[in-house]
Amino acid sequence: MLNAYLCVKVYGEINPFLKKIVDNKIKPKSEYLLAKDGVKKIKKGHYAFFTDPATSYWLINDIFTEKEKCDLSELPLHRHETTGYLVQKNSPYRKLINYANVILLETGLMQRELSIWHAEKPKCAAGKTTTEESLVSVEIKDIASLIAFLIIGFIGSFTILVLEIIVHRHETTITAILIKKS
């Protein structure tokens, strides 16, 4: 999958500006490029690369840093077309295939297979991740009051526990004495 090749074919229905870019920039050079090499060229900068998202998303997640992922932008060049199953007219298998598709969609098996074979789109998480640059050093004097408050809480809860044990023992001895007297 990582050695996928790209072959650019421009049809008449595509944007004329895109056709001009392809004719002037791509056709004079080699049309074929390894997906890994194309993503590396994107990382160097000032390069656009057209490939299957299933391939490029894996590579981008592996090669790019979080900051570099935030600098990327994706240009939609083709409409997403849904596919279907071709079944002969009045075929006895038509309902069977439709029911099977509904079951696959309802149980989530199709989504599971898509998540296995296609990587997620790289998300910009520069502000959400912890990196060495984003870490702030904290000294003990900055959190001394919090530690003191925590220690006071431990001592208070331990004192309440001891008092509850003493009261419970005192109540059980009093009930034992009352039971013996009666």
From TrEMBL:
Per the record, GO CC terms?
Answer: plasma membrane
Q: Tell me the membrane topology, using the record's own terms.
A: Multi-pass membrane protein
Which keywords belong to this entry? Cell membrane, Glycoprotein, Membrane, Receptor, Transmembrane, Transmembrane helix
Q: Where in the cell is it found?
A: Cell membrane
Entries under InterPro entries matching the protein? Insect_Ionotropic_Sensory_Rcpt
Broad class of where this protein is predominantly found: membrane
Q: Which residues cross the membrane?
A: 143-167
Spell out the protein name for this chain.
Uncharacterized protein
Q: Which organism was this protein described from?
A: Schizaphis graminum
